[in-house]
Specification:
This protein is an alpha/beta fold and about 190 residues long. It has a single domain, classed as Rossmann fold. It is built from five helices and seven strands. A seven-stranded mixed beta sheet has the order 1-3-4-2-5-6-7, with helices on both faces. The chain binds guanosine-5'-triphosphate and magnesium ion. Guanosine-5'-triphosphate binds next to α1. Magnesium ion binds next to α1.
């Protein structure tokens, strides 16, 4: 059965941030890694979350309620977009940080990693930070359709080493690869 995603809330500022009680899985990753596209692939819809070839598209925290299960998928702004102004980057970093620290019902953080590029410092910093505040990590290699099989496996192994054995799910929002596996993993975290 195809789960339904319903956009329920959009948060732009720290002041709007609330501690939503329902279980949540958040999607984080560098700008342009494919977070919003993954939301669409998970929903089986093309235009639910807005995507763009230009990084820095999502500048808010978007809460999608997942039916029939009642937990939330939360699309976070991307980080590390070099062309954004310093004050914008700081604003988004603060918002992401406040969300991670302030959401007691956050069950896991899906960290999206581009299968085409080597592990980046910002990604390693985020995973280390999430671990330090005891948020379980659900690493996801994105854009697998752009990578050869060999490259995917090598990246998966490299990340598993960096994450002390946690192996990323290999996904593609274009082909649908890994989408069911991702739903299964998210359900397990969100619903226990
Ligand atoms: P921000 O909102 O800026 O943080 O970016 P994002 O992480 O939400 O990325 P988004 O989903 O907007 O996708 C960025 C670009 O990558 C778009 O041009 C997408 O079409 C492309 N893209 C995303 N996922 C895939 C994928 O699985 N395969 C391929 N080939 N392209 C993808
Ligand atoms: Mg986005």
């Amino acid at each position: 059965m195809q789960p339904q995603l319903i956009l329920e809330d959009t948060i732009y500022t720290l002041e709007q941030l609330q501690n939503v009680q329902a279980p949540q899985i958040a999607l984080a990753g560098r700008s342009n890694v494919g977070k919003s596209s993954l939301i669409n692939a998970l929903a089986g819809r093309k235009k639910l979350a807005r995507i763009s070839a230009t990084p820095g598209k999502t500048q808010s925290i978007n809460y999608y309620r997942v039916e029939p299960w009642g937990f939330y998928l939360v699309d976070l702004p991307g980080y590390g977009y070099a062309k954004a102004s310093k004050s914008d980057r700081e604003k988004w970093a603060k918002l992401i940080n406040a969300y991670l620290v302030g959401t007691s019902s956050l069950k896991a953080l899906a960290v999206l990693l581009d299968c085409r590029i080597p592990p980046q410092k910002l990604d390693i910093d985020l995973t280390a930070y999430a671990r330090s505040i005891k948020i379980p990590l659900l690493p996801v290699l994105t854009k697998a359709d752009k990578c050869k099989q060999k490259e995917r496996s090598a990246k998966q192994a490299e990340w598993a080493r960096l994450l002390e054995g946690v192996k990323p799910i290999i996904s593609s929002s274009s082909s649908g690869l890994g989408i069911n596996a991702l739903w299964d993993a998210m359900k397990l975290y969100a619903l226990g």
